[in-house]
Amino acid sequence: MSQDSKPYKLAVKAVIADEEGRCLLIRRSARSRYFPGQWEWPGGKVDPGEDFADALVREVHEETGLSVAITGLVGAVHSEMPTAHVILLCLSAEIVGGEIRMSEEHEEYAWVPWADFPQWELAEQNSTLMLDWARARSEES
Amino acid sequence: MSQDSKPYKLAVKAVIADEEGRCLLIRRSARSRYFPGQWEWPGGKVDPGEDFADALVREVHEETGLSVAITGLVGAVHSEMPTAHVILLCLSAEIVGGEIRMSEEHEEYAWVPWADFPQWELAEQNSTLMLDWARARSEES
Question: Cβ–Cβ of B73/A70 closer than 8 Å?
């Protein structure tokens, strides 16, 4: 691992589960520049000057209509993009308000049982962490 | 994992290794409020409005006198403190300038071979990640 000229950027993702052991996934638009049609945890880039926790709440609300509060850490992933290194910080969150509605960036949503994760086309950026986390949750239940 | 009233704060830690497979650890002051005398990776809290990568560079310089550049991701850890949940984001970094000098927060520094990590009194906050990372690096060599 040696330095290159790309900056490191921080993004946040929310892992939102319901009481039945299902996790919220949203599907990227088929017109997305990156990872079109893939299913992902809601979230996005931390804006300049923005607190990471505020960014998570903002992005989840923009993408899903839901209000959430952070409850813990899931893990972190490094994703190399064309112009930047992105550190994806994935946090567990619970719904504290709102109703689900999709933005233009995503086409649909689904509540996916942890055990079913391997059957979904998951976002390449962090599919390994998504599968590992889902497997561990699935084995807990 | 359910929400409580404590805010989530972000901190960053730098994992700096030399060409001989040794890693820089610094020892917290015996007068530190938390984890006195324990050995840790340099780093600290991200200030309000501050970019996480800038925070890493600033904290490492303040604590060690070294200038560093991020080279990758090591991992993330959740640490519950009395008034906040702290997410410790640990990043690998390389030295690009400076000479080592300690601030008042730390008493000494050491270049520790990966294989020797289990013999050191590591910072409780992230000792598991430190040991896991060191073991993996040690097995690589």
Answer: no
